[in-house]
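Course assignment 3, question 2. Fill in each field.
Student: A.L.
Task: Predict the tertiary structure for the chain below.
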Amino acid sequence: WLKSLAHRLFCHPVSLLARWAQLHLATMPAMTGVSVDDACVELYNELKMKKSLRFVTFKIENKKNVVPDQQGAADKTWADFAAVLPESEPRYGLVDVDYQSADGRPQSKLTFVFWSPDDGASVQNKMLYS
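Answer field:
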């Protein structure tokens, strides 16, 4: 089953984030008791479809619910995203990263970031987020 899962995840790079979210978030409540707030899905769709945001960070609140934490407008940068990440707590993040392709065309990719600082976060928090 592991080969099947790896094949489904990595043979479709365009939908890798969507597949990860579908598989991970669907099993998260059963495994940890942590649920995902509807606002997270709405912000994901806004970031992906409307392109009105550059990034969104998410946190686990009360060890029970994933909720939105910080948002950055479309004119923000990767540095702005990095600046809002706390030094002592893990976070999930979605960032719309702009770059140039090898042939010089402007591109953007929606990127999932798992932030888990080595020195500030407790082991319990790291395990909860993982």
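Instructor remarks: The radius of gyration is 16 Å. The beta strands are 35-36, 53-61, 65-73, 91-100, 106-115.
Grade: pending
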